[in-house]
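Problem: given the chain below (337 residues), write out its structure.
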Amino acid sequence: MIDKQQVVDLWQECFNDSEAFVRLYFSTKYTEENTLVHIENGKVLSALQMLPYSMTCWGRELRISYISGASTWPEARGRGLMKDLLTEAFRIMRSRDVHFSTLIPAESWLFDFYRRLGYGTVFYSCMKNYEVTPIKKYPLSHSYSEEELYAYFMISMEKRPCCIQHSFQDFQIILADLYLAGGKVFAVSGDRGHIGGLALVVPDSGKVWIKEWMYDNDEMKKKLLFEIESLYPRHEIVSIIPVSHEEGTPFGMMRIIDASMILQYYAAAYPEIDMTISLRDEQIPSNTATYILEKGFCKKKPFQCDNVGFIFSPAKLVERIFSNKSCPVPCMSLMLN
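Solution.
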């Protein structure tokens, strides 16, 4: 049995989160079955959580394991404890039929660390500023329940072709975190009083950060911006938006857990692809093989290092997949990061 309080203490040592957020996280997201720890002499030295999500991609719903709270006491760092925990996490993910693992590095230097463990950078973002333009009709104020807000949120998120999804329970936790940070939910009405636009925002130091938003059309977007500016006058309205690797800065990473299944889905989505890939995966040896993609199918053969088109590490392979011009830009938001 894991000593939960020790995991909490480690989190507070490594992350600059408020007491209120830590209480929220460990009362709602934390479960022992999704937690891995390294213990020596009764003390938790290193820990991580594997949070389950789903992701829409290539017309399918894929299983995701998001790494959260990866942390090690300062005096125990440099011993490979986190590498061992992640390797064990990958084994568990395979047993749970997880397709991808994702994470958001807490610091820029961690991108290189996670890359050595098979994570490639596929989530990129950029900051965008918005100006409020006059609208013809003042938006009517309506009060919506969390169920109504989530119904609109879910439909909008599922329309995104490559996006990590959130359950209703997760949405409630996202709102609780938003309110802890002094944030607010804006919902504007569209046809017949139904929600036509939704924005989750947090004010901070003269800016209003749009954490996530969606809207039916440009008029609904203008209404949202008008509402935000009305409540936060003289604030700069800013959002972080997902973009391609050519347009943005690194934000999040992804690792292939089941290469055979992912490459089959990829081949089926892009049947014009004709290539041979040799993958060497030190952390997940069952992924090590040669894969032949042809006419919408993927054939797995024993690993060959001669006479093949491409030899990949897991990081290079996932980056190659999502840098395909035909592949939609991956989106990951509202992860309590």
